[in-house]
Amino acid sequence: MVSSKVAIVLLQGDGEAGTPLVFDIESIQKLRSIGVAGILTGTLPSATQQNAFLSVPLRLMAEEALWLVEKQLGYLVHGDQMVHTAAGAIRAEGMKEARDELERSFEAQREFKRQQHHEKLRRLGVKDECRAEAETDYSRLLESSLFVETCDSSTLISQRQREFDKPEIQARLAQQLRTGCKSQGDFHVYKTLREQGYFLSPGSRFGGRFIAYPGDPLRYHSHMTVQPAMDYRKDPLDLLQVVSGGRLGTGVKKLWVVGGVKDNDSTEDESERVSFFSVEWAGFG
Amino acid sequence: MNELDEGSFIPSSLLDSDDDADELPQDWSHIAKLSRGQVVVPKRGEKDYEPDGTNAQEMLLHKAKTAMFDSLSDASRGSVVKNLIKAYYVPDLHKACVPHPKGSFMHTMGKVDRNGSCWLSFFEFVYLAERGTITPYYKRKERDDHNLDPLLGIQDLYMLFKSQKESDEFAVYAHLKRLGFIVMQSSQNSAGASSVEQEKDSAVQKLRLRFCQTFESLSGSVSNPFNLPFYHPLQCHLTRYCTSAQIYESLNKLIPYIAAPKTQEELQKDMCTKNDSAGKWEFSFDVWKPQSNFKKKTPGLPDFQVVVFNKNSQKENFPTYHEMRGLLKMLRCKMDFLSGQANEQPNPTKTEEAKGGAKKKSKANKKYPPHIEQQRRIKRGYRSFVLATMDDGLVSFIKITETDFGSENVWFKPNNAPVRKEKGKPKGSKFNGEVIESR
Amino acid sequence: MPKYVPNAKRYKYPLPIHPLDQLPAIKPYNPISWVYWLYCYTFSTNQLASKIHAEFTNGKHLTVTGPEDMRYLWENGFFGTAQLSRSEPTWKKRTMVRLGLSEGSTALEHITEKRRTERLKFKQERSRFEAIKLDMRQRGIAEDQILAEERAFLKSLREMEKVFEEEGDVHLREVDEELFGPDEQLMDMEVLELMPVEGIFLTFALPVLDITVEKLLENLTGGEPSYADIHELCLKYVAYHHYRSHGWCARSGIKFGCDFLLYRRGPPFQHADYGVKVLEACKPFDTTLFSGAARVLSGARKPFILCYVELQKPESEVLEFWRQGRLDKVFCSYKVGEASYRRWVPGKNRD
Amino acid sequence: MDNQHIVRLVRNNLVHQQLWNDVEEAKLVDTNLWVLRGLPSHKLSNDDPQLEHEWILPVELSQYKPGKLTLELMDKIFSELECRRVTLGIANDDGTVVYYFIYKGLHKPKRN
């Protein structure tokens, strides 16, 4: 089942937790189908002058990445030296293979374009004898219009990155990622909501840690602004935040939600780990 | 196509991901039209409250997803052989070299060396590769032969970021670049300033510093003279206040405040006072508004400077006031509030300000009554910088502006109040601007 | 008709301590006028004829109960908040109207109440339509037809809005009987509450309340406070005094998630201009703390001011001043610095 | 947490400003907290099936001290009252009382 897991690249320097990214569009599609939307952050080549519709890489929240690893749906890949090593290890045969690959892609493009061209000429009713002449011109034109693609995923390290999918490596990377988060409790809040079917996205713009959607954000309005996790027993509810949160929620039609995380050592059921409360302005006073 | 013109048909609601209209963009069916250059008015409010189990809704969601993923996979990055611009990443320099540079990106990006090669910073390299403007390769140091330099994918490029901070900064860089802003890395920019100039500067700097220090110590003793009991019960028997202003003035001596520098002189004084409060903060980018006559070599002062901050990283926090002040002292950019002054007292060393303010001058120099002028001053504030906040992929920008309520007194003065004129009936001098009670 | 008092006259003075603006004119050619002026000057005082009575109820709540006193504090600088109204004490007037005791103008709360009922009705209509829509979808009716239905529905809502008519009924509840004293007159249940910072301002900075500084401090922070006990209150007061003393009318910003709202003159004249959050200068904060308040405020088009207050002396020294009741020395040990926080949208700042 | 001193304040506000009916005071056994119970003058939300008695928990917001209302305490209150929502009656230090619904668990926002 290794192949079906999504590779999550952790960008990190020395001793850093890492920024989780996904580069492969099929993987992104798969994540979406299991309730992980993430945020696209790269320039969309077909519309490079705007920020509303972006392309790969897909950036995940640390909590998302950790949940995917825990659920065996994804695995973490890291190594700032990996590209250097892979590039250095390439031998002449390797490069030849890459060039052959490019040539094959060109050949396919030529084939496709010629066919289209012929099709067009036929439709226009150009006679066969005139065609031969046009053909040489066209060939020159065609050669310069062949497309060299910059791929989303790496071909250099595609073999190497699979080797990261081993329990002990995953445990280490996950631990590293987890300790770099501002709040440890947020993971439990994320997990509980995710497993109840909510889609979550980063929520700082609405004054929260997460925004929760009842289904795919492409189709549904968000329902809640989820606050950073609280300690169930120790942290007092900040009433000033309740007041502004509740008012804000009324305006944007989102409930203001707090989750209290119970201690690690408690024997309670995992699903009882977080206790949620939803706050809403009562409409008077 | 020119980088600037391209953006003009895109509605402003699409420009920024953190649009007011809530949430994330949803309708990818527009993007196909967008890339064909048609004017697109994004539709809003087509979302549902929650899944209701109907097929119709399923269908709509399916359509939305298809539109999204089709747009993603149809938009492949790269260029045709004719326009191919190869850029080679040089690992030791963490930069990329374009041996045969061409194209409009060179107006605002890269540095051309003696051999005619263009050197791209790592951000420029990744950004241009993402757009499909250049084709990225990895330069293997032991070989001159490019035939053995492998082609890189987007994933490879990202994996070459040296730290989380660098990748966060790149996200902000790309966000601004996509909108047509001209963005330079701040450190890169100042390092580029000629060393001679810097040396000359430092001599002057030292002189100024000494002056400022004496000034500081003097003003320090003056600004806090308050050691008398403030509102002593006897005060009311000894002093008579004849106007509300006098009462206010006796009250507002109590709390010391930090006054913002408001003129060239005050700014220079502030800049050369000791600055150790910025901590680890420094500006990431110098940013210029989109402009067609930009000169890389003599860019002038940037329109604003940006710091980047990751709100979810354990290592980072929203800047404290001390850190903000430290950043303000380091600020080297155009300052709107000076534009009016530059006109009155031309200063040859600061022509940039005058130039930058020229466009706005007509607006800024328009005379308002003093109390309106005052409100505008308070509201606009003084020095400012932009704080780009990274929230797991969503970037939002906050403008932090030094404000100064302490230097202004806004109590109501009946004599300055706008006098409402009654038609055809000139007011008597005794009237004093107040409306007479009506029965 | 009740006598109309224009705002400019009613709120003539920005502070409860008035200047001596009734002094006679001096005529340079008339020495008698000089003497008369001097006489008036000597025997005039800025002091109130009698200080306003304030007391602590329910522990820390500093309240003013005299109807005249409540009015005075409201009209001279907008101090305090009436517990049964939004800001100005209007409860008695409103209740008279509600119980049909006298005729008068409709108070603000009455109008909002009515609007709320209307809004609720509209919303009921909306949810009824949502159900219809769901039903149509379940029956597989085409989307554009549903949209057309929706447009028609929205139109009908607007019609309904137009024809909404007034209704006024008076009924006395059982519990309302506690409002009447032995003399069968409506009692004023309303009291004016002062924020702790307002209490300090009207005791220490201006001699307005009949309460001593010592008693005030004891009630606010206890007899033997530590520095931690007084810290927050000091920060808030320093900021409050700063704005008040430069002429702003500062009132609680609680409903906007911040500490103070600043008005140029006061609530009857215009909406608040700024929202202020008081912070410690050297303490790091979580961004969530700001972004909520910033959104609420920007929704109301009010700039958001971060007011940083910094202690410049050792804590022990300040605490000692506090214990001695030397509030002047306490508060001038702090320094104020300000920055504004606003969302910046690059796309709107390109030219 | 102790809220006895503000019960009257919130009660008067409910009765005389918000015009609620049948407002009663009660003390909880588990937590020693005072709560109010009363009937609003009109339906508070369209999502409510009908006009019902509401539970109100008076709490004090002091800007100078952090509160003591933990989520654990909230859970105790809910389990003793056995209701779907509690209304927080927040007494501010400026004299106003504001009201916020607090629901146990995740609750959906109003549709409109």
From TrEMBL, chain A:
GO molecular function, one term: nucleic acid binding
EC code(s) of this entry: 4.6.1.16
Single GO biological process annotation from the record: tRNA-type intron splice site recognition and cleavage
TSEN34 N-terminal domain mapped to chain residues: 17-78
Family annotation (InterPro entries): tRNA_endonuc-like_dom_sf, tRNA_intron_Endo_cat-like_sf, tRNA_intron_Endonuc_cat-like, tRNA_splic, TSEN34, TSEN34_N
Active site positions, chain numbering: Y213, H221, K254
GO cellular component: tRNA-intron endonuclease complex
Superkingdom classification of source: Eukaryota
Top-level EC class: lyase
One Pfam family this sequence matches: tRNA_int_endo
UniProt cross-references to CDD domains, sorted A to Z: tRNA-intron_lyase_C
Domain tRNA intron endonuclease catalytic, first and last residues per copy: 187-266
Keywords, alphabetical: Lyase, tRNA processing
PANTHER family attached to this UniProt entry: TRNA-SPLICING ENDONUCLEASE SUBUNIT SEN34 (PTHR13070:SF0), TRNA-SPLICING ENDONUCLEASE SUBUNIT SEN34-RELATED (PTHR13070)
Cross-referenced NCBIfam families: endA
Chain's role: Constitutes one of the two catalytic subunit of the tRNA-splicing endonuclease complex, a complex responsible for identification and cleavage of the splice sites in pre-tRNA. It cleaves pre-tRNA at the 5'- and 3'-splice sites to release the intron. The products are an intron and two tRNA half-molecules bearing 2',3'-cyclic phosphate and 5'-OH termini. There are no conserved sequences at the splice sites, but the intron is invariably located at the same site in the gene, placing the splice sites an invariant distance from the constant structural features of the tRNA body.
Subunit text: Heterotetramer composed of SEN2, SEN15, SEN34 and SEN54. Interacts directly with SEN15.
Sequence similarity: Belongs to the tRNA-intron endonuclease family.
Identification of the protein by name: tRNA-splicing endonuclease subunit Sen34
Source organism (scientific name): Lachancea quebecensis
TrEMBL record, chain B:
Record keyword tRNA processing present: yes
GO CC annotations on file: tRNA-intron endonuclease complex
InterPro entries: tRNA_splic_suSen54, tRNA_splic_suSen54_N
Source organism of the structure: Lachancea quebecensis
Protein name in the entry: LAQU0S16e02762g1_1
All residue ranges annotated as the tRNA-splicing endonuclease subunit Sen54 N-terminal domain in the record: 69-138
PANTHER family recorded: TRNA-SPLICING ENDONUCLEASE SUBUNIT SEN54
Family note: Belongs to the SEN54 family.
TrEMBL record, chain C:
Entry keyword annotation includes Oxidoreductase: no
Record-linked CDD domains: tRNA-intron_lyase_C
Pfam entry (one): tRNA_int_endo
Family matches, as InterPro entries: tRNA_endonuc-like_dom_sf (IPR011856), tRNA_intron_Endo_cat-like_sf (IPR036167), tRNA_intron_Endonuc_cat-like (IPR006677), tRNA_splic (IPR006676), tRNA_splic_SEN2 (IPR016589)
EC number of this enzyme: 4.6.1.16
Residue ranges annotated for the tRNA intron endonuclease catalytic domain, each copy included: 234-310
Keywords: Lyase, tRNA processing
GO cellular component, one term: cytoplasm
Active site: Y263, H271, K302
UniProt keyword Transmembrane helix, yes or no: no
Gene Ontology molecular function: nucleic acid binding; tRNA-intron lyase activity
GO BP term, pick one: tRNA-type intron splice site recognition and cleavage
Matches recorded under PANTHER family: TRNA-SPLICING ENDONUCLEASE SUBUNIT SEN2 (PTHR21227)
Family statement: Belongs to the tRNA-intron endonuclease family.
Job of this protein: Constitutes one of the two catalytic subunit of the tRNA-splicing endonuclease complex, a complex responsible for identification and cleavage of the splice sites in pre-tRNA. It cleaves pre-tRNA at the 5'- and 3'-splice sites to release the intron. The products are an intron and two tRNA half-molecules bearing 2',3'-cyclic phosphate and 5'-OH termini. There are no conserved sequences at the splice sites, but the intron is invariably located at the same site in the gene, placing the splice sites an invariant distance from the constant structural features of the tRNA body.
Protein name per UniProt: tRNA-splicing endonuclease subunit Sen2
Organism: Lachancea quebecensis
From TrEMBL, chain D:
GO biological process: tRNA-type intron splice site recognition and cleavage
SUPFAM superfamilies xrefs: tRNA-intron endonuclease catalytic domain-like
GO-annotated cellular components: tRNA-intron endonuclease complex
Cross-referenced Gene3D superfamilies: 3.40.1350.10
Keywords: tRNA processing
Cleavable signal peptide: none
Domain of life: Eukaryota
Domain tRNA-splicing endonuclease subunit Sen15: 9-112
Stored InterPro entries: Sen15_fungi, tRNA-endonuc_su_Sen15, tRNA_endonuc-like_dom_sf, tRNA_intron_Endo_cat-like_sf
GO MF, any single term: tRNA-intron lyase activity
PANTHER family, per database record: TRNA-SPLICING ENDONUCLEASE SUBUNIT SEN15 (PTHR28518:SF1)
UniProt record similarity statement: Belongs to the SEN15 family.
Name of the molecule in the record: LAQU0S05e01706g1_1
Taxonomy of the source species: Eukaryota, Fungi, Dikarya, Ascomycota, Saccharomycotina
